[in-house]
Design goal:
- One of its GO terms (molecular function) is ATP binding.
- Keywords: ATP-binding, Hydrolase, Nucleotide-binding, Protease, Serine protease.
- This is Lon proteolytic domain-containing protein.
- It holds the Pfam family AAA.
- By secondary structure, the protein is an alpha/beta fold.
- It has three domains: 2-122, P-loop containing nucleotide triphosphate hydrolases (Rossmann fold, 3-Layer(aba) Sandwich), CATH 3.40.50.300; 134-258, Helicase, Ruva Protein, domain 3 (Orthogonal Bundle); 276-452, Ribosomal Protein S5, domain 2, CATH 3.30.230.
- It has 17 helices and 16 strands.
- It has helices at residues 2-11, 27-30, 43-51, 72-82, 118-122, 134-152, 164-173, 181-209, 213-220, 226-243, 255-258, 314-334, 363-375, 401-410, 423-427, 431-434, 445-452, and strands spanning 15-19, 57-61, 90-91, 98-99, 105-109, 160-162, 247-249, 276-283, 286-299, 305-307, 344-349, 383-385, 388-389, 395-396, 415-419, 438-442.
- The relative contact order is 0.08.
């Protein structure tokens, strides 16, 4: 919603927001028929009445939730607002005369693009907003979230100190989302408990600070002026504040305020074992690393086959089967006498968090995992691979380059392999995101093979 307000402020337009995530009744959009005294106009008529202009900026929040509704009419009603061919003569059921909405600027938000009805996507210009990196979250937390929360709780800056290490721990171990909503909730939780702690300190010290203050003021009433009495109260308050112990939040006591860490380290292996390769994926929480693991479950003449987890979708299953074919072809070229794939029944494990991706991007990682098992070779240390492929081994572009790069940096990855078609996406990233990474852009899987299984790679014992 904040980005909608910013756009409206920049364009000098009035702002109005509509949340469609929980709507189930078409009358909320189209208006109620005037059949009883409780009938009301739809949300757009209410919007125009509230802002008082014909060209406001209207933020429609949660359009990806519309796909979950059983009533198709609700989607059609919202579509009437967005379609420029129809919204010039939008008819509200309450008034029954056309309303011109062609001057209204509509901005829609969604978390998952796949859940947006296709009819909406055809009429929209899609703008993907990448998540914040750690440095950006740190600045937002320090410059805005922490300051506003402290003022809302009535806490003075000299009464509390949250160290940089504590904020960094919050970002890395508690709040992996692309935005800062969850980070704000955790900061608010910290300051709420600090306010309670400071309040308890003040209550416990009050009796020692002023013993029977009413009697003291009565005795001095005849001797002190009103100004002197006010000064006396000020001195008492200042002494009380001075006795309150400053609260310091660091890594050692952070769990006392927000609980144990939610996210553990994604980096499982310092050096991936044989049959394991590290990939990069995108989830609703942002970028993450994942390990594709291949293992042998049966061996025998002519028993070559590949078994997949039942949770994989059709697209991912197709990608895994194709990876098995390309891996067999690659093994035949590199080691013609190696009959491992022909005589081994294999199981390919893909983590569950890799399945809700909007597009397959773990195909090259699957091939590398299978070849590592077949050749008994370790994959290069600190290497992460992302990219899809064709039957001939050509590498196809992927999405979410920034999120995957951030995930690689967060987990200590030193080398990343991206498709050549994504070079422009990587070049557009900020310097602090790319710093310290050895990135290779490839067009063919043979290039990935040379990087992952170089001459210096060890052979499993």
């Amino acid at each position: 919603m904040s980005i909608g307000r910013s756009i409206a402020r920049a364009l000098n337009r009035k702002f109005y927001s509509i949340s469609v995530g929980g709507l189930t009744n078409i009358a909320e959009i189209k208006g109620h028929f005037r059949v009883n005294v409780s009938s009301t106009p739809g949300k757009m008529v209410q919007c125009l009445k509230t802002v008082g202009t014909a060209n406001p900026l209207v933020l429609i929040d949660g359009v990806d939730k519309l796909g979950r509704q059983h009533a198709r009419d609700l989607t059609s009603a919202v579509l009437d607002l967005l379609d420029p061919e129809q919204n010039a003569k939008f008819v509200d059921n309450y008034f029954f005369f056309p309303i011109d909405l062609s001057k209204v600027l509509f901005v829609c938000t969604a978390d998952v693009v796949d859940n947006i009805p296709k009819d909406f996507l055809y009429r929209m210009e899609l703008i993907s907003i990448a998540g914040y990196v750690t440095d950006e979250k740190m600045h937002i937390a320090r410059d805005y979230l922490e300051k506003s929360t402290r003022e809302a709780c009535g806490i003075k800056p000299e009464e509390v100190e949250v160290t940089d290490a504590a904020v960094l721990c919050l970002i890395e171990k508690y709040c992996h989302e692309a935005g800062v909503q969850n980070l704000q909730k955790h900061i608010e939780k910290i300051y709420h408990k600090i306010a309670l702690q400071l309040g308890r300190q003040g209550v416990s010290y009050e009796p020692a600070i002023a013993d029977k203050p009413g009697e003291a003021l009565v005795r001095c009433a005849g001797e002190l002026s009103k100004k002197d009495v006010t000064d006396f109260k000020t001195i008492q308050e200042s002494e009380a504040i001075g006795t309150i112990e400053k609260v310091v939040i660091d890594i050692s006591n952070l769990a006392d305020f927000v609980g144990d860490p939610v996210f553990n380290a994604e980096r499982i292996y310092d050096q991936t074992p044989i049959g394991v390769a590290m990939g990069l994926a995108w989830t609703a929480m942002g970028g993450s690393t994942l390990y594709i693991k291949a293992t042998q479950i049966e061996q025998g003449e002519g028993k070559g086959a590949l078994t997949l987890p039942g949770q994989l979708g059709d697209v991912m299953k197709g990608s895994a089967q194709l990876a098995h074919i390309v891996a067999r072809s690659m093994l035949f070229k590199k080691e013609p006498d190696n009959r491992y794939f022909a005589n081994s029944k294999l199981y390919l494990h893909v983590p569950l968090r890799a399945t809700p991706m909007d597009e397959p991007s773990a195909g090259c990682t699957m091939i590398t995992s299978l070849l590592s098992l077949a050749m008994k070779k370790l994959v290069k240390k600190d290497l992460a691979i992302t990219g899809e492929f064709t039957l001939l081994g050509k590498i196809l572009p992927i999405g979410w380059v920034k999120e995957k790069t951030i995930a690689a940096r967060r987990n200590g990855v030193k080398t990343i392999i991206f498709p050549s078609a994504n070079r422009r996406d990587f070049d557009e990233l900020a310097t602090n995101v790319k710093e310290g990474l050895d990135v290779h852009f490839v067009d063919d899987y043979n290039q990935i093979f040379d990087i992952a299984f170089g001459d210096d790679q060890e052979t499993g014992k």
